[in-house]
């Protein structure tokens, strides 16, 4: 739920997910909510001496084929749009990076129903 460069929650969530997946555990879905949606911003360009957290999330979820969902309401409010939403709201550009997908809270409920644990990383 936290912003990638304002709180520790995004990096902690990433490190936890990386450790779980590399140890053979499965993650059904990762749901980015509130300021956490900034992890899906393709325009994020941190300084070279800092971890590029959005890129690390992208690599991790691609490597392990984990479903990553960004809350559509949180994303739109923060200016993160996919091509469909950019066209819908008559915007010139979109900035949602792949493999992230915009969706609603129903995806979080579905993930909860299909998982034995739900872990939240918030600031």
Tell me what the structure shows.
Strand 1 (29-32), helix 2 (53-64) and strand 2 (67-71) form a beta-alpha-beta unit. The protein has helices at 9-22, 53-64, 72-77, 83-88, 106-113, and strands spanning 29-32, 67-71, 101-103. The protein has one domain: DsrEFH-like (Hypothetical Protein Ychn, Chain: A, 3-Layer(aba) Sandwich). By secondary structure, it is α/β, with parallel strands linked by helices. The chain has five helices and three strands; from the N terminus they run αβαβααβα. The N and C termini lie close together (7 Å).
List keywords for this structure.
single chain, 123 residues, alpha/beta, Hypothetical Protein Ychn, Chain: A, three-stranded parallel β-sheet, 5 helices, 37% helix, globular
Compose a concise summary of this entry:
This protein is α/β, with parallel strands linked by helices and 123 residues long. The chain is built from five helices and three strands.
Q: How much strand?
A: 5-15%
Briefly note the structural class of the backbone.
Answer: alpha/beta
CATH architecture: 3-Layer(aba) Sandwich
Global geometry? globular
Distance between the termini: 7 Å
Helix proportion of residues, in percent? 25-40%
Q: Indicate the mean pLDDT.
A: 95
The CATH topology:
Hypothetical Protein Ychn, Chain: A
């Amino acid at each position: 739920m936290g912003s990638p460069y304002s709180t520790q929650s995004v990096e902690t969530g990433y490190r936890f997910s990386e450790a779980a997946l590399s140890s053979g555990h499965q993650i059904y879905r990762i749901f980015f909510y509130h300021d956490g949606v900034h992890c899906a911003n393709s325009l994020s360009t941190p300084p070279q001496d800092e971890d590029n957290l959005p890129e690390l999330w992208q690599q991790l979820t691609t490597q392990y084929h984990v479903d990553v969902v960004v809350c559509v309401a949180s994303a739109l409010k923060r200016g993160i749009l996919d091509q469909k939403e950019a066209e819908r709201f008559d915007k010139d550009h979109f900035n949602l990076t792949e493999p992230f997908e915009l969706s609603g809270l129903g995806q979080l409920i579905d993930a909860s129903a299909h998982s034995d644990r739900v872990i939240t990383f918030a600031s």
